[in-house]
Predict the 3D structure of the following.
Amino acid sequence: MHADYADTQLSRLAAAIAEPARARILCCLMDGHARTSTELAVVAGVSPSTTSVHLSKLKQENLLKQMAQGKHRYYQLASAEVATALEALLALAGLPKPRFVPNTPSRLRLARTCYDHMAGTVAVQIHDCMMARAWLLPGASDDTAYTLSPAGIEGLQEIGVDVNAALTLRRRFACSCLDWSERKPHLGGALGAALLTLMLQRAWLTRDLDSRALAISKRGSKALHDLFGILN
């Protein structure tokens, strides 16, 4: 019974991946970046309506997940396990993974504000560093919420972030916020705002007068390198 079920599930997954347009979508998302259905329609080489059908099929088979960011909907691979399976198939096929090339203006791409927290390449790298150190842990409320591990609390307090004050605010404490230029998460919520406030107070960052861009000072570049292993 279980063997028959496994065979059936495997054939369903294989059929979902085997359709050329869906295979192009999955390969495109192998770089870890999220994309809209409009972007994926171009990648797949089919109409937007046909792309919607393909995306629904891939979600149904738990190969993709959908994320909402404001009025936009983005798609990513559902898990690291999906990426691993696709990586193995790409290796068998002898094909390289595609590379994501952002088209955001460079002065906004590196660092900018996203409401009251930091976005851009540097913000995504800080988020990734905190995840790699297990400072950020999945929250219980939804799949975008974070809690801090004991190491995360200690690490951020040592940097100077007022974690306790962020916890008392009547808003989400910490959450992933999809970065529209990098198409990967950066840190949002009260904790993300507190981190940006600290960086501005210490003059690691300065606000642009006529845009959301943030300039990184020499002192800030050194601090970010020392604290998070980014820039230099």
